[in-house]
Amino acid sequence: MIKAGRFQKAVQTLVKRAVVVKVLISLIVVVFATSISVTSSTYQAEIGSAVSVTSGLLATDRGFSVSPTAGSPAGTSCSSPIVFGALPQTANTTITAGHWVYDVRVNSTTNAPASSKFSVTLVLASNTYGPLCIQTLATVSNDQIIDCLFDVGATLPVSPYAFDVTIQ
Asked: 12: domain range?
């Protein structure tokens, strides 16, 4: 009777091990049977950027993006500048749909001189874009916004690249 119990336990242990081995082999077969696809990605990097601001304005680099729509130029001449106001404004070069656009957000502060015009330019690699002309109101307030958009073309420069924004 004792020998029969031992034999039965030994058979059960062997059966359990056989099931585990079959499951592991099945998993290995499934893993090797699946196809593995490899895709490559190309990334670009900017090596450096500089935003130079004078006269009590603040500027925030909002980066590059592809424009889904075209846009007519606004604020490209100081005879018709884009003026800070209660609602956010946009100054831009001619925008072509599908082109890369650089955005720098300019905020007014009470330290900015009243009724003053400022020129905003972008230098990307060795190309200069702009200038765009923006103007403060006679009564300057904090946190009025003008987004300055520059169409830089269908492609960005070869990575790494640098750019410089100047507001003066």
From this structure: 1-37
Q: How far apart are the first and last CA of the chain?
A: 101
Query: In sequence order, what are the residues at sequence separation of 6 or more whose Cβ sits closer than 8 angstroms to the Cβ of residue 102?
Result: 63, 64, 122, 124, 129, 149, 150, 152, 163
Q: What is the pLDDT along the chain (168 residues), one digit of tens a residue?
A: 566 667 777 777 777 787 778 878 877 777 676 666 677 666 555 555 667 677 788 888 888 999 999 999 999 999 999 999 999 999 999 999 999 999 999 999 899 999 999 999 988 888 899 999 999 999 989 989 999 999 999 998 887 777 778 888
Residues 92, 132 contacting (CB under 8 angstroms): yes
Question: How many CB atoms neighbour CB 84 within 10 A?
Answer: 23
3-state secondary structure at position 11: helix
For the record, the structure tokens of 53 come out as 């601001």
* Domain count across the chain: 2
